[in-house]
Specification:
Number of domains: 2
Structural class: alpha/beta
Distance between the termini: 42 Å
Largest sheet: 8 strands, mixed
Mean pLDDT: 96
Oligomer: single chain
CATH class of the largest domain: Alpha Beta
Bound molecules: flavin-adenine dinucleotide
Number of helices: 10
Number of strands: 18
Radius of gyration: 21 Å
Helix content: 25-40%
Strand content: 25-35%
């Protein structure tokens, strides 16, 4: 391969200085940039990304506008405690409201379909455990959501090989991921945020002037008064002090299945399997719990083992008997931690991070971006 061309004097003059630099043009980086630009309309706010279009989770997710199923919430309580788990639910709930208020429902393809949690026929103990906790969880979450989020529901009409006993939440919905990304991108650019794709940031250096210097793999050099890292699952590559692990999520989309009896969102296996309708197609993702170690990676390739696991689940549980093909397949990267809470933090004078969005960052994104902008305002 040819070496990278040298940077011209003019390019370096243009790109040298900005007031605020955000690394990462996912939905969190773009919304953080937009919030800061709204706060300071006369400041230059730039966003850089290693890819021409974002390449992490925001353009590769499943489009669930959700807050956590019963199984996930109880799993979260076991990992942390009730207060932390319910606080996270609350953040997602208000975050989604904010997102819809900011961008509108139709423009992002939002449909409030509700979501089911289903159980394999042999998983009666798992269902009984969750069902026994519904009232307790509802009592707390009703104060947040204004109604009981969870109700037992007969899932026989879904036409799947699952227990008749399932759990339904009317509060969830789905978005069209590409429409949401486009809307978030357009809203940032419309108010003067400049987005530069194809620049891979190297770890930042603090200058004597107090500014932050970011060199890129391509040979550019940016100096900014305020630097915000929004690289989510890749954040520890730039800021190794952050407790965050990359978690690969693999996704498949089927061909049209004419007899599909259900529409909406479905959660299974404590959220480790999730699938939704896309017209008469199905999008299914998950299976990380089959190989936690192998899936703790920033690599974006798909693997035979997880593909097969998701295919088997589709064939045995979801669309048994119907013929279908896999038409699309990809992987994305989440930013994870045991307690699943996001990091919105000032790390040093002028240096901030807004990362670790976990598996439900769509709902969180509008809220954490505002928190970040407010934090910068108060502490810069
Ligand atoms: C398969 C999958 C399914 C998901 N499904 C859902 C769902 O249904 N609902 C939901 O709420 N959430 C879901 N999520 C999670 C959600 O998509 C994320 O939480 C959210 O998109 C995070 O946004 P972000 O902007 O923080 O990170 P990202 O979208 O990951 O953006 C980070 C950006 O940083 C860039 N970057 C990384 N390193 C560098 C560098 N050194 N220099 C420059 N740029 C860099 C990347 O290219 C990327 O564009 C899913 C995630 C995955 C992977």
């Amino acid at each position: 391969m040819n070496p990278l061309p040298s940077i011209s004097f003019w390019e370096q003059q243009w790109l040298k200085n900005t007031d605020i630099l955000v690394i990462g043009s996912g939905i969190v980086g773009l919304q953080s940039a937009r919030c800061m630009r709204l706060q300071w309309p006369h400041r230059e706010v730039w966003v850089m990304d290693r890819a021409p279009v974002s390449l992490g989770a925001s353009t590769r997710n499943a489009g669930f506008a959700c807050f956590g199923s019963m199984g996930e919430i109880l799993d979260d309580i076991e990992r942390t405690d009730e207060q932390t788990a319910f606080a996270l639910y609350e953040k997602r709930f208000h975050g989604l409201k904010q997102l819809l208020a900011d961008y509108g429902e139709t423009t992002i393809g939002y449909e409030k379909t509700g979501g089911y949690e289903v159980f394999k026929p042999e998983a009666t103990t798992e269902y009984d455990y969750l069902a026994a906790n519904i009232d307790r969880v509802n009592t707390t979450l009703k104060d947040i959501a204004g109604e009981n989020p969870f109700q037992p529901k007969n899932t026989a009409k879904l036409g799947m090989k699952v227990l008749e006993n399932g759990i339904f939440t009317p509060l969830e919905g789905m978005v069209q991921t590409h429409l949401l990304y486009k809307k978030v991108y357009d809203a940032a650019v419309a108010i003067g945020v400049r987005v530069l794709g194809g620049l891979t940031a190297l770890p930042p250096e603090k200058l004597d002037s107090g500014k932050w210097r970011v060199r890129t793999h391509e040979g550019y050099k940016f100096d900014a008064q305020i630097l915000v890292v929004c690289t989510n699952g890749y954040a520890a590559q730039l800021l190794p002090e952050l407790e965050i692990l990359p978690a690969r999520g693999q996704v498949l989309v089927t061909s049209a299945i004419p007899g599909l009896a259900w529409r909406g969102l479905i959660h299974a296996d404590k959220g480790y399997i999730y699938f939704r309708s896309l017209g008469t197609r199905i999008l299914i993702g998950g299976g990380r719990n089959m190989d936690f170690e192998g899936e703790t990676t920033p690599e974006l390739n798909t693997t035979e083992a997880i593909t097969q696991y998701l295919m088997n689940y589709l064939q045995e549980v979801v669309v048994h008997g119907e013929k279908f093909e896999i038409t699309h397949q990809w992987a994305g990267t989440m930013g994870m931690h045991q307690n699943r809470t996001p990091i919105v933090q000032r790390l040093d004078a002028g240096l901030y991070a807004c990362v670790r969005l976990g598996g439900m960052g769509v709902a969180l994104s509008a809220l954490v971006s505002r928190e970040l902008a407010q934090l910068v305002k108060e502490t810069r």
